[in-house]
Design brief:
- This protein is α+β, with helices and mostly antiparallel strands.
- It has two domains: 73 residues, Glutaredoxin; 109 residues, Glutathione S-transferase Yfyf (Class Pi), Chain A, domain 2.
- The protein is built from eight helices and four strands.
- It has a four-stranded mixed sheet with strand order 2-1-3-4, covered by helices on one side.
- Helix 4 packs antiparallel against helix 5, helix 4 runs parallel beside helix 6 and helix 6 packs across helix 7.
């Protein structure tokens, strides 16, 4: 039996997508959460000096989106055709661009950097949010299925739904102009495996 192990900090963050992919498909995995005290000794042993890591029977893969794409392909939630897979990957890449655009706001809000959080919300986050969720809305509209690509769940549905959930927890009105994303998040998180995971996973700030 193949052994899957996800190593990440005791947070959702960049490790959560891989956890949710394996949870969604019903694959057991080792959820290895590395403390701040443990990390300095582990860091030099990783491929790029960062987390998350996926281990599959001892083979190690780094980078969150590489991990997600590998797992999604292994378990068939990367699109039903080559074209759908390319669309899914384009959304994942655009989401990373959005994260980079909004990063100054999130870093300040979480206390990892200095900055006027209110000003960064208005001048940095909102433009990035409005632009990119406008893009993502076009995919929801085009699919007509309630999923971002095609007629079934792909890994970017898990990616977007978790982010939407996090944003709604902090600001319940943030999707007032894009109610389709609240509906999408509810659809994705109504899956029995994901619902149970969310209810039982360790509570973390982000």
């Amino acid at each position: 039996m193949v052994h899957y192990k996800i190593s990440y900090f005791p947070l959702r963050g960049a490790g959560e997508l891989a956890r949710q992919i394996l949870t969604y498909v019903g694959q057991e995995f080792e959820d290895h959460r590395i403390s701040r005290e443990e990390w300095p000794a582990i860091k030099p042993t990783t491929p790029f000096g960062q987390l998350p890591l996926l281990e599959v029977d001892g083979k190690v893969l780094a980078q969150s989106h590489a991990i997600a794409r590998y797992l999604a392909r292994q378990f068939g939630i990367n699109g039903k055709t080559a074209w759908e897979e390319a669309q899914v990957n384009s959304i994942a890449d655009q989401f990373k661009d959005y994260q980079n655009e909004a990063r100054p706001y999130f870093m300040a809000k979480m206390g990892f950097s200095d900055g006027d959080v209110d000003a960064l919300f208005k001048d940095t986050f909102l433009p990035a949010f409005n632009k990119n969720f406008g893009f993502f809305a076009n995919f929801l509209k085009a699919s007509g299925s309630g999923y971002l690509v095609g007629d079934s769940l792909t890994f970017v549905d898990l990616l977007i739904a978790q982010h939407v959930s996090d944003l709604l927890a902090a600001n319940p009105t943030i999707f007032a102009e894009h109610p389709e994303f609240k509906a999408h998040q509810e659809k994705v998180h109504s899956n029995a495996n994901i619902k149970k995971w969310i209810e039982t996973r360790p509570v973390t700030p982000f």
